[in-house]
Amino acid sequence: MILVVGHKNPDSDSICSAIVATELLTARGVEAMPIRQGEINRETQHILDVAGAVSPELRTSVAGEQIWLVDYSDLAQAPDDVADAEILGIVDHHRLGDVMTVNPMEAWIWPVGCTNTVLFNMFKIEGHEIKPQIAKLMMSAILSDTVGFASPTCTQKDKDAVAELAQIADVQDVDTFIKELLIAKTDIDGLSAAELVEKDLKGYPFNGRDVVVGQVELATLEQVDGMIEALEADLERRCTEESLAFAAVMLTDITTAQTRLLYKGEWAEKLVKHEVDGMLMMENTLSRKKQGWPWLQNELV
């Protein structure tokens, strides 16, 4: 049995990729099961409901297991006991992380907008049928990760995949499908500051220290009015309790591509020079992967 596991604080691509990669392995005649490392967010639950799919089992220990990693290759985002598991495969669309294996493994890492775009092409290359339910999961994940094709991470391969998957899934009105998905993506009503930071938080090893960068996608920055102090306090707490050199969260207005960066930690002083009126605003910034994190790496060196 191979366990297919997405990253910590799973987003929609991570959850859908675990389910879809399991389907691919099953089509190969391999016994596999999707698992998740955290709670399902509102957008992902919307996707699962629309597709009629079941959430993967919550499981954070993989010691002694054979596993596939989907949507990441950084050990900081893997289960804590991943060193005691055997990694057989990786499917991802991010930079190559610090995963190392004893034996050769299968790895598919493409510079596209979503891991499910890679998986879609793997299905096509291998000639496996894509069922309507799986197609709906895949197109939903691609539209989520590319913010309805608006993200700079979006490629023609992503658009081509959605066009074909929409036909398989019998989605007649893709624009309405995207609108309903983005409404679910930006629903933060009732969430605490800690829950918002944790919503899509990723850890990165950098210059010998640990760093975390989260992102909250919003319909408008006004949604977090009155929460800024609480969000900053939560970032400060994480730095203290987890010995982080830097913790940040990107508050991103997906309609204007404007991001406000909140940040704390020992390295925070390196960014103060970019503040205007006490705020660090990042214009034309939708993507953590392609814009936010690369910029931060240059500044934190």
UniProtKB/TrEMBL annotation:
PANTHER family: BNIP - RELATED, MANGANESE-DEPENDENT INORGANIC PYROPHOSPHATASE-RELATED
Domain DHHA2: 178-300
Top-rank taxon: Bacteria
Annotated protein name in UniProt: inorganic diphosphatase
Annotated SMART domains: DHHA2
SUPFAM superfamilies: DHH phosphoesterases (SSF64182)
Keyword hit for Ligase: no
Reactions that this protein is recorded to catalyse: diphosphate + H2O = 2 phosphate + H(+)
Keywords: Hydrolase, Manganese, Metal-binding
Cofactor(s) demanded: Mn(2+)
GO CC annotations on file: cytoplasm
Gene Ontology MF annotations: inorganic diphosphate phosphatase activity; metal ion binding
Enzyme Commission number(s): 3.6.1.1
Matching Pfam families: DHH, DHHA2
